[in-house]
Amino acid sequence: DIQMTQSPSSLSASVGGRVSITCRASQSISIYLNWYQHKPGKAPELLIYGSSTLQSGVPSRFSGSGSGTEFTLTISGLQPEDFATYYCQQSYSTPFTFGPGTKVEIK
Amino acid sequence: QLQLQESGPGLVKPSETLSLNCAVSGGSISSGNYYWDWIRQPPGKGLEWIGRIYHTGSPYYNPSLKSRVTISVDTSKNHFSLKLSSLTAADTAFYYCARRPNRPYGYFDLWGRGTRVTVSS
Questions:
Q1: Fewer beta carbons below 10 Å: N end or C end of chain A?
Q2: Band (A105; pLDDT cuts 50, 70, 90)
Q3: Phi and psi at residue B89, in whole multiples of 5°?
Q4: B36-66: b (≥16 Cβ within 10 Å) or e
Q5: Is B108 on the interface with A (CB under 8 A)?
Q6: For residue A9, what is the nearest residue in chain B, using CA coordinates?
């Protein structure tokens, strides 16, 4: 199985700030990397697929980049509704695997 | 707008079989080219992909759970289901159903809110 790691595991940021979350794969996964946002009690939401393609309806302050084994999710201009946990997921091979998550909290 | 809703018992005993349903509302499970997946998250741990099914069948499972998992679909009821046998405390988790377009990049574009399952005597 492909192992996914994320860093940091948590971070504090201010409204209006910029955050970057890194996701690493244990082997090359090309651009088969997706990002999700999850708030407690709610359904997880797809943010980005294929490393950098923004899902329809997702604000443009979210962006993704990377290929191979290292990927980044960036949120530019944090909004109050962005405080959540973010997960990466590889879809290069089955079984699909997820990163452990990064919790973004209000500073 | 399509929605997914998980349902099932919140508490099951060790060694028993868990049965969960995922109701698809606002659209037909048979329309479009989608896989229907199950994913779980044990407390304090990461997300684990359990498996998927197409509306015509053809289930596929995570090898780590394959011996204990059955995923089925009932198009007449517009839902798909998960059965997990020989439960242990390690199966305690939030269980999510999700939709995955049969397209490149294997992303889950719609999720249910999840249902909490506790395995305890």
A1: C
A2: very high
A3: -60, -25
A4: bbbbbbeeeeebbbbbbbbbeeebebbeebe
A5: yes
A6: B46
